[in-house]
Amino acid sequence: VKEQTLATVFLEELRDIYDAERQITRALPKMVKGASSEELRDAFQTHLEETKRQIERLDSVFESIDQKARGKKCEAMQGLLGEGEELIEQHEQGPVLDAALIAGAQKVEHYEIAAYGTLCTWGKTLGYTDAVGFLKENLSEEKMADEKLTEVAAGINTEATVGA
Ligand SMILES: [Fe+2]
Question: Would you say 32 and 44 are in contact if contact means Cβ atoms under 8 Å apart?
């Protein structure tokens, strides 16, 4: 068993979210295609651009702690995104699929919020001041993305009910 310190779990968690973000950039274009609501498509598209910038910030985080930027396969994200793909395969396009896609996307956001929250707290304890700055930016973008989805969902859920 190798020695584990807060610094080593920080690095493991960082590699996990790095891989998760990269998986998200591959999944979001499919979600844009699957969504019918223009507002939802825009929200996914905007978050794709944000996610690309978040990966760049993570590159800076690795750099700030003198580590090579490298991901470690995030099984949880693969599962969450796989469920989203399944939704697209199994439902016709429309407000019901949109509502389900939002639910899936919010699970993804909450995973990220948890990961960034932890990294910010650990980074602070470890004295990684520069890293925490970048991580906080990602954390607040994820929170805003989550709120945006809640907002978009309000209209879509009504439509999904009426359509039934
Ligand atoms: Fe993200």
Answer: yes
